[in-house]
Write a structure and sequence with these properties.
It contains 6 helices and 12 strands. By secondary structure, the protein is α+β, with helices and mostly antiparallel strands. 27% of the residues lie in helices and 30% in strands. The strands form 2 sheets. An 8-stranded mixed β-sheet has the order 1-2-3-4-5-6-8-7, with helices on both faces. Strands 9-10-12-11 form a 4-stranded antiparallel β-sheet. The structure holds coenzyme A (COA). Coenzyme A binds next to strand 5, helix 3 and helix 4.
Length: 284
């Protein structure tokens, strides 16, 4: 697969080395991916990790391991494996790539590298005839949500409470591992940016659901780790439980299509009626 070279300035990166998105190649580069993953996720020694052999095996067997390089330096990578939807619609199983993670080095985040990486993953999927990528993310991580929904154009159509158990790892130690399932329909037409939610007369309240025509807006803190540090783990866990319950209720007949930052340290998800959602697919 051809590498994709991005203009250096477009990714806000160094002047002397263009950013190149390409397949990760060989055991040493796979080991670089593992080291980057551990660094970005702040893993402790007993948190468990990836290993280079697994990445190699995935890449050799219909999975994808795609890296973003500045010269020889790995600054981000994403990996995924081929998955099969449980045929709930009578149309037989559909294949998709399940993307287990995407990470960009802390000092390079917010420069457009993650977007280029995901576009590299998309390009490879389409070349193989795959038109859907799914992945899971913590609904409370609102910047990541914004990246998934507003920047990439994925949608959220399912929730898995405590997907990996009641305590996460790294920075999320002690947190329930609730996950939204994002679906990125690669053949769906690009959708227009979602409108910013209108502030209600009394201002926003965290945890509240607001009507916006047929849509529903859910307000939450825009920096979950700060909220947890300031209000303590017990209050944060109670709020997480409430929000997760609200999300589950809304996802019964709705799809999340946007998550934007509001003033005063808040963020808002937008849920639209499922029938109006672009490229809505049966749940995995
Ligand atoms: C999520 C992640 C891969 C995005 O990569 P990135 O290179 O920072 O993303 P881009 O620069 O292409 O896009 C930035 C957009 O995503 C949002 N974003 C998400 N996470 C962000 C972060 N940590 N820092 C800055 N922007 C972030 C920004 O709001 C921005 O949107 P905007 O341009 O409308 O303001 C990267 O931030 C990351 O590695 N985060 C930590 C690991 C993680 O949570 N991975 C996803 C779950 S496995």
């Amino acid at each position: 697969m051809n590498p994709t070279a991005a203009p250096t300035s477009g990714a806000g990166t160094r002047q002397d080395a263009p950013l190149v998105v390409r397949d990760v190649d060989g055991p040493l580069e796979m080991a670089d991916c593992v080291a980057l993953y551990e660094r970005v996720m702040g893993l402790r020694p007993d948190d468990g990790s990836l290993n280079p052999r697994l990445l190699t095996a995935l890449q050799e067997n219909s999975g994808l391991v795609v890296g973003a390089y500045l010269g020889a330096e790995l600054v981000g990578f994403t990996y995924s494996f081929l998955a099969r939807e449980r045929g709930t619609d009578g149309q037989g199983p559909r294949l998709y790539q399940y993307s287990q993670l995407a990470v960009v080095a802390h000092e390079r985040q917010g420069l457009g590298i993650g977007r280029l990486l995901k576009l590299g993953q998309r390009e490879r999927c389409l070349a193989a005839g795959t038109t859907l990528i799914r992945w899971a993310y913590d609904p409370m991580q609102t910047r990541n949500a914004h990246f998934n929904l507003d920047v990439l154009g994925a949608v959220v159509d399912a929730l898995k409470p405590a997907m990996y158990g009641t305590s996460g790892f790294g920075a999320a130690t002690g947190e329930s591992t609730d996950r939204f399932i994002a679906s990125w329909h690669l053949d769906a037409p690009a959708r227009p940016a979602a409108p910013a939610p209108c502030r209600p007369p009394g201002g926003w309240t965290v945890g509240q659901v607001y009507d916006d025509g047929d849509d529903r807006i859910v307000v939450l803190p825009d920096d979950w780790y700060r909220l947890r540090a300031e209000s303590g783990p017990e209050r944060a866990a109670r709020l997480r439980g409430r929000l997760t319950h609200t999300f589950a209720r809304l996802l019964a007949d709705r799809t999340a299509v946007s998550c934007v930052r509001l003033p005063d340290g808040l963020a808002a998800y937008r849920f639209i009626p499922r029938a109006a959602a672009p490229g809505t697919a049966p749940r995995p």
